[in-house]
Amino acid sequence: EDHLKVHKMKKKVLRKQVRAQHTLMRHEGIECISHATQSLVIANAGLGNGMSRHQLLRIVEEYGLVETLLMPPNKPYSFVKYGTTEEAKKAFDALNGKEVTLEDFSQNVVLYINFVEKVFWRNAVPTSLPPGLMVIEKIISPEEERRMLESIDWIGDEDTQNAQKTLKHRRVKHFGYEFCYDNNNVDKDKPLPGGLPEICDLFLEKCLKQ
């Protein structure tokens, strides 16, 4: 009887996976693949069905370094790219077809996951730059990058420490206003004390020399 239940559950998960594949192809023209890659598409984990970036990050960062997280507006799926294929495979095995509990959410959600060749969303980046904007490739040298990172006080305040707990695989530092990961916004009524560090002076000086 237990074997029969497991078999039925696996068939249900596979059916949901196939449905998610068809949805992705229809909406974005992106094809899912059968072999493991660094990149996943996660159905039932999108802005369109009420999941926030903060909630999804807390789930997917349990399995490795998340290099990219794309959440298309009004869509019920998100794209995640891990640092390695092994990390993506670990997340796939742990989360596909599994019910997860979300913070501040009225009900649990079952995730359905597929591999994709790369994290891609055709509307994520404008096709052309706005008038007056110029991109300068590799403007910062490795040595200048090191100096900038060393000039930042990573653990100097409570807001930074709280953000660090949320994004445990990345280091963050807020200036001006604290970024709220639960709603992807800032509270303009609560400015952070202090000004910009040496990192901005170094970057501005480099830009003016170009």
From TrEMBL:
UniProt subcellular location: Cytoplasm; Nucleus
GO cellular component: cytoplasm; nucleus
Keywords recorded for this protein, A-Z: Cytoplasm, Iron, Metal-binding, Methyltransferase, Multifunctional enzyme, Nucleus, RNA-binding, S-adenosyl-L-methionine, Transferase, Zinc
Biological role stated in the UniProt entry: Catalyzes the methylation of 5-carboxymethyl uridine to 5-methylcarboxymethyl uridine at the wobble position of the anticodon loop in tRNA via its methyltransferase domain. Catalyzes the last step in the formation of 5-methylcarboxymethyl uridine at the wobble position of the anticodon loop in target tRNA. Has a preference for tRNA(Arg) and tRNA(Glu), and does not bind tRNA(Lys).
EC number assigned by the record: 2.1.1.229
Gene Ontology molecular-function annotations: demethylase activity; oxidoreductase activity; RNA binding; transition metal ion binding; tRNA (5-carboxymethyluridine(34)-5-O)-methyltransferase activity
Identification of the protein by name: tRNA (carboxymethyluridine(34)-5-O)-methyltransferase ALKBH8
Family, per entry: Belongs to the alkB family.
Keyword S-adenosyl-L-methionine: yes
Superkingdom as given in the UniProt entry: Eukaryota
Required cofactor names: Fe(2+)
Matching InterPro entries: ALKBH4, ALKBH8_RRM, Nucleotide-bd_a/b_plait_sf, RBD_domain_sf, RRM_dom
One Pfam family per UniProt: RRM_1
GO annotation, biological process: demethylation; tRNA methylation; tRNA wobble uridine modification
All copies of domain RRM, residue ranges: 38-118
Record field: catalytic activity: 5-(carboxymethyl)uridine(34) in tRNA + S-adenosyl-L-methionine = 5-(2-methoxy-2-oxoethyl)uridine(34) in tRNA + S-adenosyl-L-homocysteine
Primary localization class, coarse: cytoplasm
The organism of origin for this protein: Balearica regulorum gibbericeps
This protein's record includes keyword RNA-binding: yes
Xref: Gene3D superfamilies: 3.30.70.330
